[in-house]
Amino acid sequence: MIDLADYLAALPAIAAPACGRLTRSVGLLLEATGPDLPVGAMVAVRDRATRVLCEVVGFHDDRLLLLAIEDARQLAAGSLVAPCHLTFKAGPWLLGRVLDGMGRPLDGKPAPAAGEPIELEPAPIAPLARGLTASPLGVGVRAIDGLLTLGIGQKIGVFAMPGVGKSVLMGMMARGAAADVNVIALIGERGREAREFIEDILEAEGLARSVVIVMPGDAPAPLRIRGAFLATTIASYLRGQGRNVLLLMDSLTRVAMAQREIGLAAGEPPTASGYPPSVFAVIPRLVEQAGVDAGGGAITGIYTVLLHEENDPVGELAKSVLDGHITLSRELAGKGHYPAIDVQNSISRVAQRVTAPDHRAARRRFVELYARWREAEELIAFGSYHPGADRRLDEAVTLHAKLEAFLQQGLHQQVSFDDSVRQLGDAIV
To answer: Rg (Cα) of the chain, in Å, rounded?
Structure first.
């Protein structure tokens, strides 16, 4: 077994036994002879002083099909291929750190040599070994805590078109969540946006109790996938210590796009929107790591989904495997309404289970009033609204300013769960 940090630190000096040779390179795909290895296994390909980590993505007859995790342009035909098994050394040093998809520090600080070796992809929790989602998790965002209450161990998606405030909402939840630690994965982000998220949105207070994995969009597709699984692995490790972990991943769509690159390069047939079948397997495998385990620890997963079209296949898949969805509205964002949560088209499937009766009643009344206000708003725009004609519409019009004030919240404003429930009750009277 080769430890990841040790391997990357002493890359030129490692002399793993070679078991095959590089025979072919076509586009992103490398082909090599070698030992019988399963899909997902790692190999090191070396040519003189150049060594490159590659992932096995398939095989054809007696040849391995590989995708490079690092720059493979210096590799030549005949380069030696050797298997390697990588682990990651986790420990208390993780908090406040920024890492890449292979666990290498990006913040200029060294990675300690000591730590507990963990696998880069955790084993799934058996269905009957999972604990129940029975307690609410406050995230510091009034509209979510009051109307779309999350439960500890839930997995939920934030669905939105580009540019409506997904990253800002993530930062608000990371700073305000009542979790022991945050694990934040920025997969496929622009490098500029990743730094802005850490410094301007997450800020020092949020970073101090977070582990951030950053894999920009120009990273190789296997590395982006591994970044998503590394974040999940770290969250699982922290959950195993009995901690309440909030896992924030932005975005599930870019994980799917990375898997599409891998699948198409390996020869999979394209299906809906060009996504190969492996995409529809990797997403459930990733999100099913969230949940409560028997030891009392929990991972609450919040995954953003970037929508590009109606009936987006990744969006439809995510809705089917997640415990609810928070939809952000471009119309509301255009009006300066932040966070731009469309409460009528959002749902938390565990809210009924983790909230008190009075809270549930207040939520139902708020949603009813808000729906009637939207109806009255259309009538007012067309000049068809007549006060006194419908008592319930009149009530919604009277209260709409309080409803709108409850739904809006500043970036640096944090509201506790109890205060959110109290303010919800105040908004409907």
So the answer is: 24
**71-75, 195-199, 243-247 — which is least confidently predicted?**
71-75
Asked if 47 and 74 touch (Cβ cutoff 8 Å), the reply is yes
Q: Tell me how far apart the alpha carbons of residues 343 and 87 are, in angstroms, rounded to a whole number.
A: 42
Task: Please tell me the pTM assigned to this model.
Answer: 0.88
Q: List the beta strands (DSSP E) in 232-345.
A: 244-250, 291-292, 298-306, 324-327
Distance CA 211, CA 383 (A): 53
List, for residues 266-318, the tens digit of each pLDDT value: 888 888 778 899 899 999 999 999 999 877 899 999 999 988 766 788 889 99
- Residue 6 DSSP SS3: helix
What distance in Å separates the CA atoms of residue 243 and residue 206, rounded to the nearest whole number?
Answer: 17
Decide if 291 contacts 130 (C-beta within 8 A). Answer: yes
For residue 180, the SS3 value is coil
User: Is the bond into 339 cis (omega within 30 degrees of 0)?
Assistant: yes
DSSP 61-129: TTEEEEEESS--TT--TT-EEEEE-EEEEESGGGTTEEE-TTS-BSSSPPPPS-SEEEESSPPPPPGGG
Q: Confirm if 131 and 153 have CB atoms less than 8 A apart.
A: yes
Residue 13 binned pLDDT confidence (cut-offs 50, 70, 90): very low
